[in-house]
Amino acid sequence: MPLTLPVMSPPKAVHRLALRDDAEAPSELREWIAKRLMEHESELIGHDLALVASELASNAVVHGIAPAHACLIKVESPDSVRVRLEISDSGPGFDWTRAPVGEVTDLACGGRGLMIVAALSRAWGWRRVHQGHVVWAEFVSG
Question: Residue ranges of the Histidine kinase/HSP90-like ATPase domain (predicted)?
């Protein structure tokens, strides 16, 4: 599992959102993220972040247990902006050894979400928490 990037400075902003428990959750999350990124951040990482957000929100709604939440953390340094997206739900998470990253057939209708997350983010992973689990992905501009 990829490790998190070291934090160089305190977060500039931390935003939280309670996700809907329906098919509209990914769309709502994309709009919410877009409102929290500055224009230059959106141009550099916005599209990748929006796609990963959709995948993680979909996983939380389809495979997790409500309630689900999103947390967007921005850390700025003089030469870059790092954004970390965390999606949490009350479900038990998944068995990392059985996660289908890279093991999907060409004809499968699903199972590519974590492959997309791995391809588009700088780092990603998951952890168990007291009331469920968190899946996170990090993006860096600059």
Answer: 25-137
Give the list of residues 6+ apart from residue 35 with CB closer than 8 angstroms, or none: none
Residue whose token pair is 């939280």: 16
CATH number, position 119: 3.30.565.10
Residue 2 located in a structural domain: no
Q: Which amino acid is at 82?
A: R
Q: Residue 109 and residue 106: Cα distance in Å, rounded?
A: 9
The answer to whether the beta carbons of residues 61 and 80 sit under 8 Å apart is no
Residue 5 falls inside a structural domain: no
Residue linked to tokens 């993680």:
56
Query: Is 25 domain-assigned?
Result: yes
| Model pLDDT for residues 13-59, shown as the tens digit of each residue | 899 999 999 999 999 999 999 888 876 676 778 889 999 999 999 99
Closest by CA to 49, choosing from 84, 20, 17, is: 84
114 band by pLDDT with thresholds 50, 70 and 90: confident
